[in-house]
Specification:
With 394 residues, the chain is an alpha/beta fold. It contains 9 helices and 15 strands. The chain has one domain: Metallo-dependent phosphatases (Purple Acid Phosphatase, chain A, domain 2), CATH 3.60.21. Strand 4 and strand 5 form a beta hairpin. The chain is globular, with a radius of gyration of 21 Å. The protein starts with a helix and ends with a helix.
Length: 394
C-alpha cells in the first residue's frame, strides 16, 4: 500500500512539474543543463544540519546568503536535518528554506537526515513540500519509489561542450534509526540501484566508469576502522558495537589517518553495513562521499580509495566546537578530480562587508577567541597526529 501511494504521488508530482516546465521553458533551456564551466569546474555548496526553528534565525539566513555569494555554486546539496519546526509550521518552514535558493537563482537537491523523519510528517509528504516550494530550482527526484526512504536520485554533470557525462552526483536517503540499535544505513536495494546506474554510465562512456561523488546524511561504518581498534573478545568496557563488529573507543582516536579537517566528536555511523563503500570502492568511480549528521566534524579520511568527508553543521556551535560552524565548498573538475574546503561561519563573518555579526548570534569576541583556538589546534594536531600514529602501530 505504501509503495502504491509513493508511486501515485510521484506520478502526480511529475505531471505538475512537467506542466510547470512547459510553461516556463526551463527544460528546453540549454543553460539549465548541469555542466562544467569553460575552466572545467563545477561548484557544489554542501549545507547540512540546519536544525533551525521557524522562522529561520537571521544568522542562519545571513550565513547561507553570504556563503552563496562567496562560492557562487552551480548546485547546492542540502544534507538533511533541516528544520525543527512544529508539524503545523513545517510547510512554511520548507518554503522559507526554498526561498533562499529561489532568490539566489541556484538549483538545489536534498538528502534527508534522521531528524527529518521525526516531525510528524511522512517523508514522502516532506519531499513533496520541497518540490512544491522549490519549483524548477529543486532538482531532487524520488527516482525509484520502490527504494528505501525517499529522494534517492542521481544528477549528471556534462562536459562544457555537453558531449558527455563528465561527473555523476549520487544522492541517497540514509534513513532514520534502527530501533534499539542505532542509526539506519543505505539499504541493499539502493546499492544495487547505484551499481546499475554506474554500469549504464560506463557503457555509455566507452567502457570507462564516470567519476562520481556521493551525498547522504549518515556516515558509513568503515570510518571506525580508521579511527579505533577492534575490541578484543570479551571486552565490553568503552566499546561501540555494530552489526558483527565491536570497536574499542580509545580516549584519543587515530588522528594520523585524518587527511585534513577536524574531529571534534565521535562519528555516528549506521548500525548495519550493507556494503555500500565496498561496492563503490570496487568500481573505482566514486571520488568522495560527503556526509553531515556529526555536527562539529569536518574531516577527510581516505578509505579504500574513496575520501570519506564530513561537512559541519550550518547551525552555530558553542564553546570549543565553534570553529567548524559552516558549510563545504566542493569543486569538481572535468578531468575527474575534485577538491573541497570548509567555508567556516566565523571566517566568513570576518570578511569585509559581512553582515553575519550585525544580525546577531555571534560577536567579535567570539571571532577573536575562535582564531586563537584554531591556531592552538593546528599546532597541537602536529603532535597528536604523530603520537597516535606511533601508539596505534605499537
Amino acid at each position: 500500500m505504501k509503495n502504491f501511494f509513493k508511486k501515485t504521488l510521484c506520478i502526480v508530482l511529475t505531471l505538475i512539474m512537467t506542466t510547470a516546465v512547459t510553461v516556463t521553458g526551463f527544460a528546453t533551456d540549454t543553460d539549465s543543463v548541469l555542466k562544467f564551466d569553460e575552466n572545467g569546474d563545477f561548484t557544489i555548496l554542501h549545507l547540512t544540519d540546519w536544525h533551525t526553528v521557524y522562522p529561520i534565525p537571521e544568522i542562519h539566513k545571513q550565513y547561507v546568503k553570504e556563503a552563496l555569494a562567496a562560492s557562487d555554486p552551480d548546485l547546492v546539496v542540502l544534507g538533511g536535518d533541516m528544520s525543527e519546526a512544529s508539524t503545523e509550521d513545517y510547510p512554511a518552514a520548507v518554503k522559507e528554506i526554498c526561498d533562499l535558493f529561489i532568490e539566489a537563482e541556484t538549483p538545489f537537491v536534498i538528502t534527508f537526515g534522521n531528524h527529518d523523519y521525526l516531525h510528524g510528517i511522512a517523508i514522502d509528504d516532506m519531499f513533496a513540500l520541497y518540490k512544491q516550494y522549490g519549483g524548477e530550482y529543486c532538482l531532487s527526484e524520488d527516482e525509484n519509489p520502490e527504494l528505501f526512504g525517499c529522494g534517492t536520485c542521481s544528477l549528471s554533470v556534462y562536459s562544457n561542450d555537453e558531449s558527455r557525462v563528465a561527473y555523476e552526483i549520487y544522492c541517497f536517503d540514509s534513513g532514520c534509526e534502527v530501533e534499539g540499535k542505532g542509526y539506519e544505513s543505505v539499504h541493499p536495494e539502493q546499492i544495487e540501484w547505484y551499481q546499475n546506474k554506474a554500469e549504464a554510465l560506463k557503457n555509455a562512456n566507452g567502457g570507462e566508469y564516470v567519476p562520481s561523488v556521493v551525498f547522504q546524511h549518515i556516515i558509513v561504518q568503515e570510518i571506525y576502522d580508521k579511527l579505533f581498534p577492534v575490541a578484543k573478545e570479551g571486552d565490553t568496557k568503552n566499546v561501540e558495537a555494530f552489526d558483527g563488529i565491536a570497536y574499542k573507543m580509545k580516549a584519543i582516536p587515530n588522528l594520523s589517518n585524518i587527511k585534513d579537517g577536524y574531529l571534534m566528536e565521535k562519528p555516528c555511523p549506521g548500525y548495519y553495513n550493507y556494503g555500500q563503500l565496498d561496492a563503490m570502492s570496487k568500481n573505482g568511480d566514486v571520488r568522495a562521499m560527503f556526509f553531515g549528521h556529526d555536527h562539529s566534524n569536518s574531516f577527510t579520511v581516505e578509505i579504500d580509495g574513496v575520501d570519506i568527508v564530513n561537512t559541519p553543521s550550518v547551525k552555530p556551535h558553542s564553546t570549543l566546537k565553534i570553529i567548524n560552524w559552516g558549510g563545504r565548498v566542493i569543486t569538481l573538475h572535468e578531468n575527474g578530480t575534485y577538491e573541497s574546503e570548509v567555508l567556516e561561519g566565523y571566517d566568513l563573518a570576518d570578511e569585509k562587508g559581512s553582515e553575519i555579526i550585525d544580525v546577531g548570534g555571534v560577536s567579535w569576541l567570539e571571532i577573536i577567541f575562535t582564531k586563537i583556538w584554531k591556531a592552538f589546534i593546528k599546532v597541537s594536531l602536529v603532535f597528536w597526529n604523530f603520537a597516535t600514529k606511533v601508539f596505534y602501530n605499537f
